Amino acid sequence: MAYATQADMEARFSSKDLVELTNPNNFDADTIDAVFLQTALNDASAIIDARMPNMPSPPPSALVGICCDLTRYKLSTGSATEEMQSRYDNAIKLLKDLHNGAIVPASSSAGAQISAADPVFIGKDML
Description:
Elements: H1 6-12, H2 15-22, H3 34-51, H4 62-75, H5 82-100, E1 103-106, E2 113-116
């Protein structure tokens, strides 16, 4: 199952970056390579499926952003920025927490959302 689309990627990241990431060997490219991007989206979705074998239905809406972050990191092929690495690490941690039940999807009329299994308190030093 694909958790994100090209439109989701374009909504989160700059077109310039996506053109560069999807055309690693074509420095003159001026459009996103949709096939290359879809392959990376499929690979990221496969990572999600592998880490979430008992996916709730409907899937949590947070998986769109997770899939986009995994895809962008995958597309960076060794040239990931600190921000890309951080977003990837956070996406993997969120998947792990979802799988382990540390956070659970909650249903609402607006669709599935992520909510903490236990209350989370943030002190002023953590803001």
